[in-house]
Amino acid sequence: MGATFDLWKLIKTVLFYTAVVFIVVVSVFPFYYAILTSFKQGTDIFRISYWPTSFSLENYQAVFSQGSFPRNLLNSVFVASVTVILALFLAVTAAFALSRVRFRGRGFLLMVILAVSMFPQIAVLSGLFELIRALGIYNTPWALIFSYTIFTLPFTVWVLTTFMRDLPIEIEEAAIVDGATPWVIITRVFMPLMWPALVTTGLLAFIGAWNEFLFALTFTSSNDTRTVPVAIALLSGGSQYEVPWGIIMAASVIVTVPLVILVLIFQRKIVSGLTAGGVKG
Amino acid sequence: MASIELRNIRKAFGVVEVIKGVDLTVRKGEFMVFVGPSGCGKSTLLRLISGLEDITSGEMLFDGKVVNSLAPSKRGIAMVFQSYALYPHMTVYENMAFGLTLEKGHDKEEIRQRVEKAADMLQIRQYLDRLPKQLSGGQRQRVAIGRAITRDPKVFLFDEPLSNLDAALRVATRIEIAKLHESMDNVTMVYVTHDQVEAMTLADRICVLRDGLVEQVGTPMELYETPNSVFVAGFIGSPKMNFISGDKAKPFNAETVGIRGEHINIVPSGGTWSGTVIHTENLGADSYVYLEMGTEEPVVVRLEGANSYRSGDTVHISPMDGKVHRFDGAGKPIL
Amino acid sequence: MATDVMAEPVVQTGVKIKSELMQQRVRAAQLFLLPMLLALAVVAGWPLLRSIYFSFTDASLNNIDGAEWIGFGNYLRVQTLDSGAVRYRGLLVDPAWWNAVWNTLRFAVLSVSLEAVLGMLVALVLNAEFRGRGIVRAAILIPWAIPTIVSAKMWSWMLNDQFGILNDLGMRLGLLSQKVAWTATAETAMTAVLIVDIWKTTPFMALLILAGLQMVPKDIYEAAEIDGVHPVKQFFKITLPLVRPALMVAIIFRLLDALRIFDLIYVLTPNSSATKTMSVLARENLFDFDKFAYGSAMSTLLFLIIALLTILYIWLGKVRFDGGDR
Questions:
Q1: Are B191 and B31 in contact (CB under 8 A)?
Q2: How far apart are CA A145 and CA C267, in angstroms?
Q3: Can you tell me the distance from the alpha carbon of C111 to that of C187, in angstroms, rounded to the nearest whole number?
């Protein structure tokens, strides 16, 4: 009896760890393979291998020397950073109002904000296109900063509202008794307490803006103004049939590695940020 | 220094009325304690005085001026919260100075002096550069009190400030607060607690609240000696007052007779009542004997020193002269 | 609720009193909300209205300003041919559009339900205590962190018909008899898209579900264990009902995301009508085919369809968002 029980337990353990290994391999392998490919040289790329066989930086040199990839990288950094800073700036005060002050229509307003953040962006594309051309910012980074507000702002407001709601009410009341106005409460009491939340929210919004494709594809038209996702999508070789896989993989690794590192550093905070508002029993 | 007057104050949250018409005057320099069971509205009443909560109807006066709609910071109050509510990211010094830095007209030197004076009073000067999380619970509570002192308020509000402390610290901090009141005799203090011992030891006067209404206001001894309802009689004093009703109360011409454990004599024979010992507790300086005698709860007799009664003993008891509280069917005293 | 600073009195037994504090807070709230609301009105509200307006005009890419109102023509119009036959034209009878609608719905339902099941499995694994749990959690964040465009490119390389590693792996393991042109063949294009999408977004699902799982008190399971409840029954009777709210919210977020999918399909299977979704088709009409008004009609219809589905889902599923009331 004891022996069969142990066997069953062993099978369960083996199955469990098989599942664990499977999850890890499936998650990591595509990225691993992209890195592997990016270090291959010339026709080596077309020889399938599961383990590193050669090491060459040729593709990386190509990415930075050919075309406008460095410029695209700068564009992406600039657009994502400015978008996030603007969104956070507007969202912090709005989140205070939504989480700390009771007024009629607050619940409705929160639903509208959530709805906008989940908006199908294509639904506003033609209207935005007209507006962006009218503002004279078509094919500039400002067009992207402007349009990205549609998803970064509601997102940051929503997440910061849920974070701010969890700050202890007595601290705010102590500040009120001390004579603090709402503005002082936000800037001198809440903000210092919320910086982890601000970093998390900012990071998530940054990733969103960094990865955005539809607006970037539509509102920029020249190599110099594109962001990296568009640049990678449109990377092409000498002829239509010659896809420069090595260069594409090198570019992919370059734009992904910083994100992966950031995400791994902040992983706990990111999980809490993702679940904020979503999961609350 | 300020007197506080409440005139028919009411407060409703949605459709639930929590304060149902309170009239009360807190005199200048007085230490007033609000006491009552949880849900009686004592904290709400304090928050109405602080201005953190809006009054639904009625009038609130500070020194004869209506302050119904005045912001908390303009009422000259300071508040000590149950959870201390210190700003976690500020040092003790910054915590205490925060209110003054927001007010106009205080230069740095003056703020420093005031903070240091308050810190000296509470012996927390050596912690001024620390963050709240580096302090113990008792130290945090001192900082919270220090922050209130620094503001130099006319009215000091305490919202169950000792309930987060352990028993030993609670006694020590209670004595601190009593000393503080003595040294700041021109400051009016309002203190909320559910612990009648805190109320008895700290208060100049106690306001007993029940279901959003004032049950009785008076000095601790007034409440102890002449409670004006069964509720107050049962709430004030430890051990709890014994209530004897029905036939056993008849000889006293009352529906219910209340008698405190310390006002009962054990007599060798005869006596007013008799009962069976079910439990005894020896506390050293005094001891309690619990008697089963057909009342709802056992009757407690408090004796000086230790006693040697055993469970099962039959005991005869008599109330001391003039210490019997007689109540009518509505729970009101018969005078 | 009872200790809320700003609880507003409803029962009024006397004069209504609005305190200075409350007035100050409400004024501040209005002031704080104004910039955000203005920004949202400009970047979302106005463009949405204009897009809907364009769908009723004859606007073209080079003649947006001169667009003229033509009513419902883009949606449905009746054309009488010279021969006298009556033909219906417009979006509502456009087979390409309905094909895109079908593709979108098929994609959304398949991807989200598979992600929910897989996400639940991954979450259950991560909820168990074992050595190296941290590494697994870090590993599953990688697909989530990779930009969609990059994952599309990575996978199209792996799915490459000639040099793709997946064909190679499938042949070696005997799962495939010959190399498959995953992204180019109509039959497999949707599968390819689903594989990539599931790979990329299952982690998100798993993490949301995991957060829900971790809120289930451990002693419930201990009690069930003592009562001898079978683990499978435990899952369906205890775990599932308790994580249901989290799961429902996770599903709706994913569903809305899936219904608007654009980038993955645009890069992975361009020009394949088997995977062309509403968003892809609408953008194509707007900017590649110079049918600006027609594309606007598509985006308007897409908006309506998604709004309708969302309301239906929230209503049927009784989803409760944490509405933000303290």
A1: yes
A2: 23
A3: 17
Selection from B48, B291, A204 nearest residue C3 by Cα: B48
d(CA A228, CA A220): 12
CA C120 from chain center: how many Å? 18
Residues from chain C that touch A91, judged by Cβ atoms under 8 A, are 36
- Phi/psi of residue A89, nearest 5 degrees: -60, -50
Q: Cis before residue B88, ω within 30 degrees of 0?
A: no
Distance from C-alpha of C272 to C-alpha of B169, rounded to nearest angstrom: 75
Residue pairs between chains A and B whose CB atoms are closer than 8 Å: 53
Domain assignments of chain A as residue spans, ordered by start: 2-56, 66-275
Alpha carbons A105 and B132: distance in angstroms, whole number: 38
- Point out which residues pair with C79 in neighbouring strands: C87
- CA of A193 vs chain B CAs: smallest distance (Å): 7
Given a contact cutoff of 8 angstroms between Cβ atoms, the answer to whether A38 and A256 are in contact is no
Percent of chain A with pLDDT over 90: 49
Asked if residue B161 lies in contact with residue B129, where contact means CB atoms within 8 angstroms, the answer is no
How far is residue A4's CA from residue B280's CA, in Å, rounded to a whole number? 59
3-class DSSP state of B218:
strand
Give the fold, CATH level 3, of C94-317: MetI-like fold (1.10.3720)
From first to last of its 326 residues, what are the pLDDT tens digits of chain C?
334 444 444 444 444 557 888 888 989 999 999 999 999 999 999 999 999 999 999 888 888 887 888 888 889 888 888 888 888 888 888 899 999 999 999 999 999 999 999 999 999 898 888 888 888 888 888 998 899 999 999 998 899 888 888 888 888 888 888 888 888 888 889 999 999 999 999 988 888 888 888 888 888 888 888 888 888 888 888 888 888 888 888 888 888 889 999 999 999 988 888 889 999 999 999 988 888 999 999 999 999 999 898 888 888 876 666 543 33
Task: Give the pLDDT of residue B205.
Answer: 96
C-alpha span between B327 and B231 (Å, rounded)? 11
Domains by residue range for chain B, with CATH: 4-229 (3.40.50.300), 239-327 (2.40.50.140)
Determine the Cα–Cα distance for residues C280 and B198; give it in Å rounded to an integer.
72
ipTM: 0.87
- Answer whether A166 touches B (CB < 8 Å): no
The CATH-assigned architecture of domain A66-275 is Orthogonal Bundle (1.10)
Q: Quick check: A171 and B79 CB within 8 A?
A: no
The DSSP bridge pattern shows strands B314-319 and B264-267 to be antiparallel
Q: How far apart are CA A32 and CA A253, in angstroms?
A: 10
User: Nearest C-alpha of chain A: how many angstroms from C247?
Assistant: 8
Q: Is A47 helix (H, G, I), strand (E, B) or coil?
A: coil
Q: Concatenate the DSSP letters of all residues of C15-81 into one string.
A: -----HHHHHHHHHHHHHHHHHHHHHIIIIIHHHHHHHHHTTB--BTTBSTT--B-GGGGT-EEEE-
Is the Cβ pair C10, B15 closer than 8 Å? yes
- Which amino acid, one-letter code, is at C274? A
Inter-chain contact A153–C36, Cβ cutoff 8 Å? yes
Furthest CA-CA distance within chain C? 85
Q: If DSSP codes are grouped into helix, strand and coil, which group holds residue B22?
A: strand
Task: Tell me which chains share at least 3 CB pairs under 8 Å with chain B.
Answer: A, C
From chain C, the residues in CB contact with B56 under 8 A are: 9, 11-14, 17
Find the CB nearest C13 among B13, B47, B57.
B57
Q: Provide CB contacts within 8 A for B4, sequence distance 6+.
A: B24, B25, B26, B49, B60, B61, B62, B155, B188, B190
Tell me whether residue A11 is exposed, middle or buried, using C-beta atoms within 10 angstroms of its C-beta: 0 to 12, 13 to 18, 19 or more: exposed
| pLDDT for position A275 | 65
Of the partner residues A174, A179, A188, the one whose CB lies closest to the CB of residue B85: A174
Q: Quick check: helix, strand or coil at residue B155?
A: strand
Does the distance separating the beta carbons of C19 and B70 come in below 8 Å?
yes
